[in-house]
Request: fold
Amino acid sequence: MIKDPADRTAEAQADSEGAAKRRFDRSFVVGVDIGGTCTDTVVLTADGKTIFGKAFSTPPDFSHGILDAVGVAGEAMGIDTAMLLRGTALFLHSTTVAENAVTNGNLASVGLITTQGFEDTIFMMRGGYGRWSGLTEDEKRDPVSTSKPPPLVSRSLVRSIAERTDRRGEVLQMVDLNAVETAVTDLVTRGADSMGVCFLWSFVNPANEQTVGAVIRRLYPNRFVTLSHRVAPVLGEYERTSTTTLNSALGPVVTHYLQNLSGRLTELGFNGTFLVGQGYGGLLPLDAAADQPVGMIESGPIMGIMGARAIGESMGCHNIIAADMGGTTFKVGVVRDGMMEYQPESMVYRYHFALPKLDVVSLGLAGGSIISIDQRTGLPQIGPRSAGSYPGPICYDHGGEEPTVTDVDAILGYLNPGYFLGGRERLNIEKAKRIFKEKISDPLGLAVTEAAAAMYRLTNSMIYDLLHKATVERGLDPREYALFSFGGTAGMHVSAYGEELGVKQLVIPYSASVHGAFGLVTTDVVHEYQTTQLVRAPGEPRLVNAIFASLAAQATSQLQQEGFAPADIHLQRSIDMRHRRQVHVLNVPLEQDGDLDEEALGRVVERFETLYEGRYGKNSGFLEAGVEMVSFRIRGSGKVRKPALQAPPLESHDPTHALRERRTVYVAKGGGEQEVNGYDFERLRPGNRVSGPAVIWTPITTVVLGPEQVAEMDAHKNLVVTRG
Amino acid sequence: VDSVTFQIIRHKFFQVTAEAMATLKNVSGTPNTNVAHDVMVSLYRADGTLLAGGAGYGHHLPVAAQAVKHLLENFSDDPGIHEGDVFFFNDPYSAALHAPDIFIMTPIFYDNRLASWVSNFVHVTDIGGIDPGGFCPNARECYQEGFQSKGLKIVERNNMRRDVLETFLNMVRDPNMVALDLKSQMAANHVARERLLKLYKDYGVNTIDSVAEELIKQSERQLRERLCELPDGTWRACEYIDVPDNECKVELAVTKEGNSLTYDFTGSSPQVAVGINCCYWATWGALFAPIYPLLAWDITWNEGVLRPVRMVAPQGTIVNCVRPAPVSIATVGVVISVNNVSQLAITKMMGASESYKHRVTAVWRGTGTRLQVHGRTAEGEYYTSMLTDTFCGSGGASATRDGIDVAGEIPNVVSAMANVETHELNTPLLYLYRRIVTDSGGAGKFRGGLSHEFAFIPHRTAEDGMGVVSKGKGTRSPMSQGVFGGYPGCNVHYATIRGIGASAEGLAFVADKAASDTTTPGGQTLQREERSWGLFSLAPGDAQVIVAMGGGGYGDPLERDMSAVLADVSGGLVSAHAAHDIYGVVLTADDTAVDTQATAARRLALRSERIGRPVDPSALTRRPIKPTGMRLSEYLQRTSDGSTQCTWCGYRVAPPESHWKDHGVQRRLPLQAAGTRMAATTDFVLLATSCPSCGTLLDTELLRGDDPPRHDIIRRWPHVYD
Reply:
C-alpha cells in the first residue's frame, strides 16, 4: 500500500528493525522491467546465479504480465510464483508507465496554483525556449517549422494567489487562507483531478507553498498534490512549474499503477522491500517513488544502459553505444569512458522537468512500426505509426492486420516459431505473408521475398541514420565504440547497420533479452537530497557541517528503513559552487568523510578552482568576485548485492553441438535466399565461434550474421561479432 | 575524403562551436549571455571566410568574418599574428555591430602554419560609454560610446597582457563583471582551439580544410539552386523607426535575378543624431540574419550563403553611416529594422512561388524591449544588468498556421528569456507580473503570435533607487508587419508609475490594473510617465511597466476559421470585441458559441464596407480558381494575358502592364482599426487594398502619413514561359 506521506515518519522507526531482519531472511532479488511489448524479469539468487523470465506486457493492467514473467523465472527455478515472491527480499521495478502516459496524453487534469501575475509562466515556456529546446541542431535552424508542445495544463485550470517571497526567503506577502480555499475549491469544481502549486522563490522559503498544500490536504485529502519546493527545489520558476505540473499530471495514473501492483504482490505473499527505478540511475522505495512519478520517466531504458555498463566493465569495454530495438521504440544511450552523461535539460516529449536524468535518446522505429505504401507517391514507408504491443505484428496472431518490420523479419525466415518466447507463443507467418503480399509486394510489383528484402534494407538504413544522429552528430566517432545490441528486434538488423556505422565490434550481451531487468539488479538504491543556501566560501565549518549533518540524517534514516546495514550505506557529499555573480554552478564532490574544518573547506575552494580551470581553461576563474556555495547535496546509496560473475575457461571454437537446423533465410549483400546453419544460443559455449552467413536463435531474438561476419561467445556468454 | 569522414568532420565543426558555446555560457555571469543566448561562436578559415556559423545572432556570422580579414590586412606584419595570440576587436566602423559586442578572436596554428580562426562575441556588461550598459541613448557622436578598438592583442603568445586588460577595465563600469565576460569569451576560444587541434591531429590539416572548402561550395550551390526555383522580380519593404525627434526609415528593394540576390537600400533616411545607425558591415550582417533561417534553413551556414548576395547601401544613410555618427544602439535599432525588411521581402518572394508558398511567414517580434538597469545594491555594490524579457518574442503567422505565442525571433533562432528568479538572484528588483497579452497578435486568416507584458520595482537597492536605460521604439510605428492582408502585431508600450510603494496593496494594484489605469482603489491618482527613450530613474516604490510587440498576421482576418476565433476568445487570447470588430465573428451572449448566421451577415457587411458597395453573399466562400503557376500572393495571380486576378473570386483586378495596387480599392486606415492594442496615432496608417469585386483584403501596407504605396514587380516565374 502507498501511505500518506504524513504517516510515514511515525511508522519508519518501528519498521526499520523489522525491515533489516526481513532483508536477510529472504534470499532473492527480483528485477522486473516493463517494455512496450514484453515484461522482463531477472532473479538473482544468494549464490550469484541469474535466472531470466519474459512474458508479454499486458496493458492496461500490467500486473498480469509482471506475474507471468516472474512465473516463467520461477518455473526455471522449479518453484511457483508465490514461493518465489515469498522468498524475495528486494523487488526492483522499472516501467514505462510514466512516459507512456505523457506520449499518449493519458494525463490527469491538473489544477495549477501560481503566484499572482505569473499565471502564464507554464504557457510562455521562457519565450522561444519552449519552441526550440529538445530539437536537433538542424531543426532549430528552421524556426518556421517549429512549434511549442500542447500545454500540460488547461488555461481554465490555472489560479493565482496574491503572495510573494523574495530571493532571500523573506515573505513580502503571506497567502490569504480564504483566497486559497476559494481557488482550490474552484479548481476542483472545474474538474481538476490533481493539484500543483508553484510559487516564486519557494525553494528558498516554502512557507507559502506549504500553507496552500495544507489547505488542499484538509479540503481534499485524497487529491494528489505536488508542491514545487519538494519535487524540484531548484532556481527557475518555469522549470519548477513545469516539473510540478507534469508530476501532478502523472500522479493519479502512476499511483494507481503502483498501488495495484504492490497489492497483487502482497496478496501473493511478497513481504520484502519494493523499490522503483529512477531516471538518475538509482532506485527509490515505493512511497517516495509514488510521490515523485516524474522521476520514473525513462527509467527502464536507463536501467538497460546501467546493465550494459556493468557488462562492459566485465569485458574491459568502456566506450559503448547501447541500442535497444524492441517492439515499440528504439532507444540509444552512450557510455563514454565508463561514464554516462546527464541530459543537459531533462525532457519528456518536449516538456521540461528539473530532475536529473541520464541521457537516452528515444525514437519511434521498431519491430511494431507499420509498413505502408504512400497513396500519393506510391512509395513504401516505415512508420511513424506503430502496431504497438497489441495487436502488434500480424505474425503474433493477436489480430494485427497491418504489416510491420517484425513481419518482414518473419517472412525473411529469421524468426523461429520454436524459439519465440521459448516456444510458448505461436507465430502465424503464413498470415503475415498473405497480408504483406496484398498490401505491400503486389502494389510494388515485386515478389514477396524480394519486397520483404527491400523493406529490410530500408529499415536498416533508417536505423543507421538514427544511430548516426545519436553519435556522429554529437561528435562521437563510432569507430571508437562497441555497439551493444538489445531488444527483440535488434538482432535481426544489428549486423547490417552496425557494420555500416563502422563500430569496432558488435556485442549481443547474454542478458540482452532482459537488459532492463538485469540493469535493475546491478543498480544500487540511491537517494539524492539537496538544500539551497547561499554561503560565502570557504564558509563557517560549523554552518556547513550542520547543513550536511541534516542531509546525512535524512539519507541514512531512509536507507536504514529500507533495510540496509550501516556497512552497505555510502554517502557522497558535494557542493554546487560558483563565482559570485555567476549564474552557472559547478558541482564539487567532497573527497573526505566526516566533519569539515577550516583547512578542509579551504581545500574545497581550491578544488573548485582546479575543476573550473580544468574545464574552462587557465585564468578563466573569477576569483576577484569571491566564491559562493549555492546548494549542498548528498547522494546516499545502499549497496545491493551483485552477481559474482565467474569466467569459465574457454572451450574450442567448434559450435557444431549447438547446431539446431539448416534453415532457408534471406542473406543480405546479394546472398539472396540461402540455406544456412541455425544455432541455439543457449547451447553455445564460451569460446565457440559461428561464421556467417548463419543465424543464432536466442530466447528473444535472432542474431543474423552476414557472409563475412564471425560471432564468438566470450567467457561471460556474450556474443561478440566482428568481421571475419 | 570518403563520405562518412566528410560527414563526421562536418558535424565535428558544429560540435566544436556548440561545445565552445556551452563553455562561454557556463563561465559568463550575465543572464543575457548564459540564458538569453545573445552570443555567437563561429569558425573561420585562415583567410577569414566563414567556415561554420554556430547558432546565435545571425548578423555576427558575416561581420566577424570581416573582422578577421581586417586583422589579416592590418596586423599581419605589425604587430604580427602568432600562435597563442588572442585579439580583442570591437570597432563598428571597421567591422563590429556596436562597441559592446566584443569579438574575441583566436588564430589557430598547426605545424607553425595559420590554419583557422575561432571568433565569438558577447554583449559585455559595460563598455564605458556615456550611459551604462553599452547602449548610449544620450550619445550624439560615436566618441561618446566608449572604448572602441580596431584590434588589440589581449593575449600574446599564451600570456595575458595585463597592461592591455587593465587599460580596458579601467574605462568601464563594473570592471569585475566585464572581466568575467572576457574570461568567458577566452574560455570558449580555448575549448574550440583544443578541439580543432585534435581534429587536425586525427585527420590532417589539409583534409579538414578541404572539407571546409567543399562545404562552402556545397552551400553556395544549394542556395543558388534554390534561388533558381523562385520567381525573378523586385520586392519592396520599408520600416519606419519612430525614435523621438529622430524619426527615420529603412527602405529596401530586393531584386532576385536567376541565381543571385541584390539588396538595395537606396531611399533609406540620412544618418540620425542618435545611436541607432548602422555602419556598412552591420547592415551587411543584418540582412543575412533572416536569410539563414528563411532561405537556407537546410543548408550549412557558411560563406557559401553569402556569395550569391550583393548589397547597395548609400553612404551617409542610417544603413551605412559615416563618422562621427553614433552607433551604440544599432543592434536594437536599424539592425532589427534591416532584419525585418529582409524578412518581409524574402517572405513575399516565397509567397509568389507555388513551391515555396507554404514557407511564408509574417514578421516575428518586430522590435525588442531591451531595458538595462543599474545602480547600487543595498549593500553598496555596483551592478548593471540587462533584462532578458526583450528576447521573449512573438511568432509571425505563416501560410499554414497561427504565429506561435511568445515564440522568440528570427535573427537569433535560439534566443530565450531567463526566469524571473534568475534576474532577481543577482539584480535588486522584484517582478510584479510577467504574462501573455490579449489581442497583441496581428489579426489575419492566421493570427500573429501574442507577446507578453511585465513590470518591476526596485527591491533592496540603495536609497537612490535604480537607473534605467531605455532605447525603445515601436511605440507608434508597428514593426511586426503582416503579410497578404494580415495586420501588424501590437505596438510596444512603456510606462513608469510613480509611488505605488512596496505594500501588498500596491503590488496587487499594479499586477491587476496599472497597465491601463492610474487610480488606486483608495482614489489616489498615481503619476504616470510614458517614456520610452533615454536614461531615467526609479525611486524605491516606482514601477516600470512594459508591453512587448506582437507578431504579424497572415491573410484576410475575415477568412479566419470561426471556431479558431471562438477558441481564442475562450482562452483569453483574443477579446470578444476584437472577434466582432476585426474578425467579423459574432458570439452568443455568453461568448461560448459562434452565432454563424450573424457572423455571415457581419462578415458580408465588413466586405461591403471595404469597397463601399454591396458584396454578393457568394463572396463569403472562396471559389476554386485554377492556378496559372504565376502566383503573386495568397489572393492574387498573373494570368496568361498579363493581367492580375483575384484568386478568391476570380475577378480581374488589374490590366497588364500596371501595378495591381493602383486598381484595388484602397483605404488608409488608422492603426487602431487593427486592434485596440495598436498605437493611437495618426502619424502612421495602414493602406488596406481590397478586391473591388469580393472585398477580400489583398494587402495591408504600413505607410507614414501621405507616403505613396510601394509596388512589387514580378518578372518571370521558373518553369513558366510565355
